[in-house]
Amino acid sequence: xxxxxxxxxxxxxxxxxxxxxxxxxxxxxxxxxxxxxxxxxxxxxxxxxxxxxxxxxxxxxxxxxxxxxxxxxxxxxxxxxxxxxxxxxxxxxxxxxxxxxxxxxxxxxxxxxxxxxxxxxxxxxxxxxxxxxxxxxxxxxxxxxxxxxxxxxxxxxxxxxxxxxxxxxxxxxxxxxxxxxxxxxxxxxxxxxxxxxxxxxxxxxxxxxxxxxxxxxxxxxxxxxxxxxxxxxxxxxxxxxxxxxxxxxxxxxxxxxxxxxxxxxxxxxxxxxxxxxxxxxxxxxxxxxxxxxxxxxxxxxxxxxxxxxxxxxxxxxxxxxxxxxxxxxxxxxxxxxxxxxxxxxxxxxxxxxxxxxxxxxxxxxxxxxxxxxxxxxxxxxxxxxxxxxxxxxxxxxxxxxxxxxxxxxxxxxxxxxxxxxxxxxxxxxxxxxxxxxxxxxxxxxxxxxxxxxxxxxxxxxxxxxxxxxxxxxxxxxxxxxxxxxxxxxxxxxxxxxxxxx
Amino acid sequence: xxxxxxxxxxxxxxxxxxxxxxxxxxxxxxxxxxxxxxxxxxxxxxxxxxxxxxxxxxxxxxxxxxxxxxxxxxxxxxxxxxxxxxxxxxxxxxxxxxxxxxxxxxxxxxxxxxxxxxxxxxxxxxxxxxxxxxxxxxxxxxxxxxxxxxxxxxxxxxxxxxxxxxxxxxxxxxxxxxxxxxxxxxxxxxxxxxxxxxxxxxxxxxxxxxxxxxxxxxxxxxxxxxxxxxxxxxxxxxxxxxxxxxxxxxxxxxxxxxxxxxxxxxxxxxxxxxxxxxxxxxxxxxxxxxxxxxxxxxxxxxxxxxxxxxxxxxxxxxxxxxxxxxxxxxxxxxxxxxxxxxxxxxxxxxxxxxxxxxxxxxxxxxxxxxxxxxxxxxxxxxxxxxxxxxxxxxxxxxxxxxxxxxxxxxxxxxxxxxxxxxxxxxxxxxxxxxxxxxxxxxxxxxxxxxxxxxxxxxxxxxxxxxxxxxxxxxxxxxxxxxxxxxxxxxxxxxxxxxxxx
Lengths: 501, 501
Ligand SMILES: CC(C)(COP(=O)(O)OP(=O)(O)OC[C@H]1O[C@@H](n2cnc3c(N)ncnc32)[C@H](O)[C@@H]1OP(=O)(O)O)[C@@H](O)C(=O)NCCC(=O)NCCS
Ligand SMILES: CC(C)(COP(=O)(O)OP(=O)(O)OC[C@H]1O[C@@H](n2cnc3c(N)ncnc32)[C@H](O)[C@@H]1OP(=O)(O)O)[C@@H](O)C(=O)NCCC(=O)NCCS
What we know:
2 copies of one chain form a homodimer.
Chain A: H1 3-8, E1 18-19, H2 21-25, E2 33-36, H3 47-58, E3 63-66, H4 73-81, E4 85-89, H5 95-101, E5 107-108, H6 116-122, E6 130-135, E7 137-138, E8 143-145, H7 153-159, E9 162-168, E10 207-208, E11 214-220, H8 234-252, E12 263-265, H9 269-276, E13 286-289, E14 292-293, H10 295-302, E15 306-311, E16 313-314, H11 318-326, H12 328-332, E17 335-337, H13 340-343, H14 346-352, E18 355-359, E19 362-364, E20 369-370, E21 373-374, E22 378-379, H15 386-392, E23 395-399, E24 403-404, E25 409-410, E26 412-413, E27 428-430, E28 435-437, H16 443-454, H17 457-474, H18 488-496
Parallel strand pairs in A: 1-11, 2-3, 2-6, 3-4, 4-5, 6-9, 9-11, 12-18, 13-15, 14-16, 15-17, 18-23, 19-26, 23-27
Antiparallel strand pairs in A: 7-8, 8-10, 19-20, 21-22, 24-25, 27-28
Helix pairs in contact in A: 3-4, 4-5, 8-9, 9-10, 14-15
Bound molecules: coenzyme A (2 copies).
One coenzyme A binds at residues 266-271, 291-292, 358-362, 371, 374, 380-381, 383-386, 401, 404-405, 409, 411 of chain A.
């Protein structure tokens, strides 16, 4: 066996557990419930799932897969397309499994990412047969050190009957010390989570496990699938500029200083592009308390704008992977990777008073947000942590281009076709057209701000028409709607591909 | 001046501030923003608002009124109907102001009750010109002791430019000591809220105020408007039985003991009736950590079932008022009244692991809940604390009769016409028909449980038809819907008064 493998397995007797991916995959039975590491394509188990997918080709075998969040192609493409997944939660983002979810072949449970650990504790998710967890190392005191994400690994490792470790040599041992693993006590016996500042370390550098449960260790050497986000464009730069101007107005109002407040930024190209906008701004000494660190955060660290970033996962492009993971020592004192139960915990989010920036698929004239369902029926990715952050932050901002599909669809509609975030939780909407600050406003006060500031010119009149008709129809009720037409824009889009009517 | 008044004003120089309601009301200017005590008709300012309503009859005068939650008739009926309210938040429950909200005469901002204090800190609600606060007493060390509710009084008193006190002699001085006032630090400097058990006292017996800001003290002697809930009926008793059976199954599953977990129970007749059901159950040593204590809680205390209850407000019927407030000493060691920011705080709710029981207007086949908008446009009361509890509890249960308006409307619909709680947050639905436990299920797994267990027989087939058509139409998408018909039941109800089609 390679010396470096032995070195990374700090407990001697565990070296015997090293086996091939096929041998590990052979342990898994049809119908098993499997908790896996991995969060937005980072730190996911890679080689065991591939070996499992091989088995599925010739065997009737389906498992339930719960993770931190979305995974790379090994599970959500290869295993899923082979027919190996019965049920999936709590988040995904791969076109392959998305398609299977939207044709009824895979069951999917979309959930707030901070809720999962609680459901595992209660046994609602479970009993967990296997935890498959990618690790950098096992320390001599029995800590399992994750790689580029922590996600739900601690809770799966704690509750699983068996643990399969994927020891990934592609990650430098310098990752040891970057993580901070803290598992809250059971409800009823629980203490406050002692994070007072984003930089606070409150736990261990690895996951305390019952090493007796380690049934197999598989060695791998695979990089994370790189992030899929696309580069900023003119319009996302306009959105960034609108956002920065809004934050400037908050400073003028005395609500923020130019250090702002800990920032959370959501997944996807738009949220990343908007964050990039801080690079050339006057804001400084920024701190991130987020779920996923995408490219923008590292660019901001390099630019000296961000002094510290707390997350549960690092999901970056290929070039940035080389730079960051090749020199993780340079970033180690500026980063903490935490369990998602902590990165997304309402207690911590509300205490710290975050500024949350998440992307929406569509919003409506009253400020409700659809983050998940295209056309109200087809699952895109999932709600992820957007609800955890949106509900509890000091400022919850949603960004979206005002239109989609080349201008045929308006991203601002009479009524969203699926509700992920209700009017009560959405403070500010930013599109390339402008900003609507909805805080403290009644529904009818929000309408002109949203239509005039955020809607694409092609759809403004059509939205005003809908609204005025609804006011007349309902006798100016609290939330005027015309139930016959509230979803008619989506009907039109489904039938003729356009919301222009 | 009456001796008892002087005795209740612990700071001598403040006795000079005693004046008539008219004199106090005369201080308020057109356009002022006023923060008032009062939460679900309890502990609200009564005589100053009435005097203000008199002024409004002959003067152009409108104010913005923010409270804890709903008030008695003095504000939400008399002042509102006189035209004295421009804007109202964060909750109301009176037919008079409801009507004005639904005809566009009063602006209403519906909000999570735990969010208000934060908005005041940020100045989004504000600047607050006056806090009008009903009190039992002012202590010699400058604490303002509330009466039957605390609500948002501490934060309004802290941020208001001026404070008007309504010293209500109708409340026994024995109320001193029942409250526990704790105001979290500003975000960024905030410490954990140190409640580890519902019984924990963490603050002061009254609101620390800058006594210089007390501009007027008005003496009153008015009881709270009694609660309006109606008695349990056969169907709510069936709902209670279903709920208890569900909890029994949770005990069998090892998730609860027969002491259950701290209970929260929502406002309204249905939630109260369901809680009454615990009286003849085998559960014991129950603890309540809730927002409002309605009649049921006191009946359970008297029956020896509930050992302790934490709340932000006590809203009880006339008979029970006599019994409880006449003998508050007997209950004082079993009750704490807290600020609503604390009773409803996500941090505390998730730490304690509550069982939340709230009432819904309607739910849909995927588990989304409408708590607020009749027919999707007319505001009923507001979301209140239901979101705070539902999102963060160990178990979040919604109760509703399966039908409304004598059976013409189904309370389970294809798509709710307004979303207050999304599918991600709703664990269990209880109607008089039965229980649907939705935890851990994908949307399409929830549908048969909801339709078969919860829907009234009159509407079952119609819902199945909708669902099957939607599955076919969307190619079995993640959340099958027919956007043309999703709200058609509400269209039918608005046009012909019935959802039977
Ligand atoms: C909402 C979300 C999908 C946006 O992602 P994004 O990459 O920034 O957005 P894009 O504008 O590139 O849109 C992604 C896709 O949605 C489509 N889309 C966007 N708006 C749409 C709309 N109003 N109607 C229909 N489709 C729309 C785009 O056309 C694009 O489709 P394609 O992949 O077929 O090209 C993504 O942020 C997400 O999944 N959010 C939910 C989870 C979350 O917020 N997590 C953060 C917590 S930390
Ligand atoms: C939802 C809520 C209105 C139910 O109140 P309730 O008193 O238990 O319920 P009822 O069944 O008596 O219904 C109240 C009214 O709504 C009507 N209603 C109930 N279901 C309806 C439906 N599906 N469609 C239309 N109207 C409906 C009833 O007919 C009744 O109308 P009426 O006053 O004209 O007779 C009430 O619980 C509420 O306001 N909840 C939101 C706030 C909250 O949950 N706070 C708790 C946090 S601690």
